[in-house]
Amino acid sequence: MRASCTRPNANFIGEHTYYTDGSGNRVHFGWVTNNGNLDRVTTTFSHELVESCTDPEGSAILGVAGTCSQGGWCEIGDVCSSASDLYGVTVQSFWSENDQRCIVPDWPADTYPYSGVQWTDILPANSAASWFTYNWPEYLFVVWEIVPTMPGPGGAEVTWRVQIERASGAYVTYWITATNLTNQDIQIEGRYSVLGH
Amino acid sequence: MQIGVQFTGTLAPNQTQRWFTYGWQSDWDVSWMVVPTTAQQGSAHVQWDVATERAADNSITYWVTVQNLTSDTFDFEARYAILNA
Asked: What are phi and psi for residue B50, nearest 5 degrees?
């Protein structure tokens, strides 16, 4: 905050809010004070940033009444107070409903791509079957493949289709339907490849 | 590997619609994925098909057909992964 600016409340060290301009547009903004301590500035900034994303106008993701000790909007940063170092920057934790605790998340230290077998099963002759697999982080780019595990030369044996359910903000469920094109039962495995995020 | 969101869209209940995106290098190996951004539990929401058009010697157009499998409107994003970029 510039020295020429004044705080609406002398007790505030940061805030995010919005106003409506002359054309009716909602303008979202935030500010933090600078007391000369960089860790405090980044802690406050990260607090306001995450709240501005999840509750830009005080009407989105809010805490249960009474969980905040302060007045005004009770948001996901307000119920937490701990701070952590994230790649050399001090940031404040925020409440995660999935984890039921205050967290400082980071991208997983995965090395992409990686792959594996999610399931195996028997696919009866001339029939189709569906499987679902859940709790996949939504940010992952995952491709699926169905492969017979026993040799069956002579023609195509199996086709598949992938469908997606957005089960929550954080996770997707994959629904994979495979069709056996042959007149023999075949054992299959459902393989995934995580390409990245 | 290069991954990104090429476009976003909205589909009405049970609607199927096709989008195209052009100017992709012909020597790229591109995989597509359509992910709903509107959460709704219970069943699969979306499926998609991809068709290609060789628009020029060095250019591919991708036609992505997206189908809403539900009786609700939802938003989605179409993601690409260039496997050899």
From this structure: -125, 130
Does the B2-82 domain belong in CATH 2.60.120? yes
Chain A residues touching residue B44 (CB < 8 angstroms)? 132, 163-165, 173, 175
Q: Is A137 left (phi over 0), alpha (psi -120 to 50) or beta?
A: beta
CB contacts, 8 Å: B1 with chain A: 112-113, 195-196
Q: Is A7 on the interface with B (CB under 8 A)?
A: no
CA-closest candidate to residue A131, choices A87, A91, A166, A175: A175
**Domain boundary assignment for chain B:** 2-82
- Output the pTM of the full model: 0.71
Contact A195 B1 (CB under 8 A): yes
CB contact under 8 A, B35 and A164: yes
Do B31 and A138 lie within an 8 Å CB cutoff?
no
Which tens digit of pLDDT belongs to each residue from A60-115?
Answer: 888 777 777 677 788 999 889 899 999 899 999 999 988 889 999 887 777 899 99
pLDDT tens for each residue of A14-37: 999 999 999 999 999 999 999 999
Burial of A165 (0-12, 13-18, 19+ CB in 10 A): buried
Is ipTM > 0.90 here?
no
